[in-house]
Amino acid sequence: MGVGAHRAGLAGAIYFAAIFALGFALGTVRVLWLAPQIGLVAATIVELPVMLAASAIVAHRLVRSFGLRRASELVVMGALGFALLLGAELILGVLAFGMTPNTWAANLLTGAGAIGLAGQIGFAAMPLIVSGLQKHPPRA
Fold first, then answer.
1. What average pLDDT does the segment 14-19 reach?
2. How far is it, in rounded angstroms, from Cα 45 to Cα 67?
């Protein structure tokens, strides 16, 4: 594995950890407090911009800190973060909420699940998105 890929992988792991920790905290508030008040779909819509803004801030800082400039490095960072995020959510669903993997996957097809998945795809794309906002655009 090249140095750039190694840096991108480490950035992706840190990116996942930071956003998963925030998502866990906000998800608890969403499910236990906000959803009973306004419904799960509306609560998910309220949470989404906060998560995407946090993803943009964290991705920007990591891209800059790790010096990621190549598109391939940015894709690795986002894809690894996305894979770790889905894996952690699956494990959490199975261990903490008694879901089966099939139930967890089926939940992605509900209104709230689809909104959450769209946000996670935005999370995966964020390293590429924020790199376009920096002085040095990504190289091929």
1. 98
2. 33
What residues contact 48, with CB distance under 8 A and at least 6 apart? 115, 116, 118, 119
Q: Is 139 helix (H, G, I), strand (E, B) or coil?
A: strand
Neighbours of 109 (CB within 10 A): 9
Residue 115 CB partners (closer than 8 Å, separation 6+): 41, 44, 45, 48
Residue 135 has pLDDT above 60, yes or no: no
Q: How much is the pTM?
A: 0.90
Maximum Cα–Cα distance for the chain, whole Å? 50
pLDDT at 3: 76
Across 67-75, average pLDDT: 95
How many Cβ atoms sit within 10 Å of the Cβ of residue 81?
A: 30
* Domain residue extents for the chain: 3-131
**SS3 per residue for 40-98:** HHHHHHHHHHHHHHHHHHHHHHHHHHCCCCEHHHHHHHHHHHHHHHHHHHHHHHHHHHC
